[in-house]
Amino acid sequence: MALTNVAMWTDNGWKSVTIDEAVDIFPDDKVSANSGIFMCRLCKKYVTLTAPGIYSRCFKHSRGDIDKECDDRALSSPLQNFELHTFIPPMRIKINNSQSYSLEMGFILPPDIKDNRGSIIIRNDNLSISEFKYDISRLSYDKLTYLQIGSVPAEKYTISVSGSSLSLPHIVDGIKKIGVLFDYYTRKKLPDDADVIVNHEYYFLTIKKIYVPSDVIVNQICVMNGWYIYKIRAKVFNRSNADFFFKFGYLLTEKQASLTFLWPEYILSPYVIRHRSDKLNLYIQGESIIPKIYPNGNILCCKYCDSDNGVAVTVECNARQQLLSAGRTRVLRYTYLWKDTLDTCIELPIVRITDIKGFEVIAGESNKLPEKRILQITPQFDGYIEISKDDWIIEKRRINASVVSEIDQIQFGICIRIFQGLECIYSISYLRQNKTVSDDEEELLQQLQSAGGKMLPISHLFGAVTKKYNGYPLIQKWIYSQIRNGCISEKAYKIIRGK
């Protein structure tokens, strides 16, 4: 049977192509798999466009390259389905030092699970006696709970649940020996067929040493049990870099696939959108991204709306619980849609703000700069920081969940706001303490005359400070006398400048 999930290499990367489109581009010639022009999205192998003849033209694998793992011939739809109740546990990596790391698997209680009794058992299929058992009571309804699954990677993990109605996939894909990528900032494992973003950093876990193109930056981070961890980043978007990541099942791109909810109001938590509407509107962006809704009876209206492969999607929310997914040949993004009332009070997300010594910094106004003029920020969810100086925004930067971000060179006049979504969840302003000239000129003059400390050189330019003391002739006269002497005590200088 002819292949249907085929992409073509263009100046903008891999783009999905139909047989009719390919024939229009190459009307008279066969295109060999060796050319590297067409590839099968499912097995990531180059394929052939057959020559014109008595049979209809089609894509097919090379005769010596028939891959039994390629499911294209059996698929009626390019996007893998999974049941409504199926939650695909994400994985992440924790690097302790240059010789130690561990893996974790994340779980969440779906909204329809009311009883958190029972246990989860995770088995490493590579080891005969490697089993991790956890009480389901450890899991949360509104955030992921990551559970340790050891430091020996497995290509497959077997999951079983006892004493609970929680439904999880029996087999979960793990770590391929050729290598898998983890996002450098969130440490989460990228799904198969995921986008790799130019100039974004990743961890690469593999059982082999790797050799990269010149435009890919790589640094070895850790070695343990014969496995290597590298930090890796593609500097530019080109064919050689794309081919490198393509070998491991990833697509190099300059824009990441995204799923953004637009309207109406909703409450967002990891993998769950709580709403109260009969319709939800969202925007999905990414090359050849296909949205799907489960159960299949619900209406899903899609409309391609811009040149960035954006899709405007309207979901008819006929069921209380639905599952929305987006992907190409694999699911890249998915979330529960949970129809419910929103008349509850929701606490603001937790964000930890400390100085460099670890002491908490309270929101509000402060006339004292933090230790070494540095703040450290650890948010519960992704968001961004907005930094302004004298009411002018001078910087915006993204922050990632559970990742420490640092702001340095803080000075008076700076205001720091932390946003998650459209909500400002924290704000602090550093304001110099207002000081006024003492009403008792004699008292101030006495302070200046008795001020000690080392002597500082001053020039006639220091006379400009006398403008601050209009109406205080004794103070002005004293300042001029110091200028004539060419020096002033350090303490007196601070008193004058601080007034």
Named CATH topology of the largest domain: Immunoglobulin-like
Provide the helix percentage: under 10%
- Beta-strand residue fraction: 35-45%
Number of helices: 5
Helix-and-strand structural type: mainly beta
Query: CATH first level of the largest domain: which class?
Result: Mainly Beta
Query: Can you name the CATH architecture of the largest domain?
Result: Sandwich
Mind describing the biggest β-sheet? 5 strands, mixed
Low-confidence stretches: 71-85
The radius of gyration over CA amounts to 31 Å
How many discrete structural domains? 6
The separation of the N and C termini measures 85 Å
Number of strands: 37
Categorize the overall geometry. Answer: elongated
Identify the strand order in the major beta sheet. 20-21-27-26-23
Average pLDDT taken over every residue: 80
